Model the fold of this input.
Amino acid sequence: MVRIQNLLERELIVDDLLATDKAGVIRELAVLVAGRGKVKDADELVRVILDRESQGSTGIGDGIAIPHARSRAVSDTVVVFGRSRQGVDFETLDGKPAYLFFLLISPEDRPGEHLKTLARISRLMRNAILRDRLRACADPAEIQRLIYDEDGKYPVCR
Done:
């Protein structure tokens, strides 16, 4: 079962990223994941995500980027959310800055789960009202509530 609310913990939400470039955003989110004990090596996570980025940007446009990869560095799927108030050049498909970031890392041996989680995040982020509200949120608790509420509107992928 893939539900973002089962994967995104409040401690994995950054409401004001400090990074100003793509690699910096990935590093900042990877350090958070490692600091929470979800991966052992932040540098390895950064390397895996940047390797995936070299195949094509995960900046999907509309202010959204979903850097993602599968890795032996994790035993369970991890979702992290970050928001940049100033925006970051993430080489998005529409050429505009990204403000909202979901970093997704999944075990190598679970490609189906990875794709379903990626599809679920993409589906949630199609909602322009949600995107606007996430950009205007006051704190991580409100970000989490908005994402959970939107996630609850859709049936579970199996």
Summary: The chain has a mean pLDDT of 93. Residues 4-151 form a domain with the Mannitol-specific EII; Chain A fold (CATH 3.40.930.10). The two ends are 6 Å apart (CA to CA). The longest helix spans residues 111-125.
